[in-house]
Design goal:
With 193 residues, this protein is an all-beta fold. It has no helices and 15 strands. It has strands at 2-3, 8-16, 23-30, 33-38, 50-58, 63-71, 78-84, 87-93, 103-112, 115-125, 131-138, 141-146, 158-163, 169-174, 181-186.
């Protein structure tokens, strides 16, 4: 919650029993807004794991920093965490490397004068949080989806939908495991699966 008298914030994330609603465990994030959500399988144990995004606001520097944690769905242990010096939004995505474990797309956004100044997209290996690759998106807003295997290497690739200034749109095909741009087209494109 937010304490408006002291200007502080804290978030409690509780694990509850689905049948009774009884609290099994909880974690408090002081000085931050946090959210945990289901996010694929990073351990290979066939139990869905989750991601926790922790946002800390530095009012002095007018900045938001982000920590992303992968949490084991079975034992609830933190598998790994990554810190980012700006606002970051993590999206689970299916396996891009062929190791049988899902990956994570992280959108990194920097703001200046109340407008998006720049944005980047990073892909992290789900099993250990290692950075696989990072690409600049310029000042475009983008959304990425897992696409079909576009290169014939047996691994899924990505399709990025970018919206730039003045309503311009671009579709970019990206090699999933290394971030190489395969092709791009202005406008909207639909790929058969």
């Amino acid at each position: 919650g937010i304490d408006s008298l002291n200007g502080t914030v804290a978030t409690k994330i509780a694990e509850v029993d689905g049948s009774s609603g009884a609290e099994i465990g909880s974690k408090i994030f002081s000085g931050a807004v946090a959210v945990e959500y289901p996010a694929g399988n990073y351990t290979g144990d066939l139990v869905q794991d989750s991601l926790t995004a922790i946002y800390k606001i530095n009012q002095t520097e007018q900045n938001v920093t982000t920590e992303i944690q992968a949490v084991d769905g079975q034992g609830r242990a933190v598998l790994w965490n990554k810190s980012f010096p700006s606002l970051a939004i993590a999206q689970p995505i299916k396996d891009l490397t062929g190791d049988g474990r899902d990956e994570i797309v992280v959108y990194l956004m920097s703001f200046a004068a109340n407008a998006t100044n720049s944005s980047e997209m990073a892909v992290l290996q789900g099993s250990d949080g290692v950075l696989l690759w990072k690409n600049s998106l310029g000042n475009a807003l983008a959304f990425v989806v897992a696409g079909p295997d576009l290169t014939g290497d047996g691994k899924a690739d990505l399709i990025a939908y970018k919206l730039g200034g003045e309503g311009e749109s671009e579709v970019v095909a990206i090699k999933g495991d290394d971030g190489t741009t395969l092709w791009s087209r202005m406008g909207t494109v639909i790929l058969p699966q």
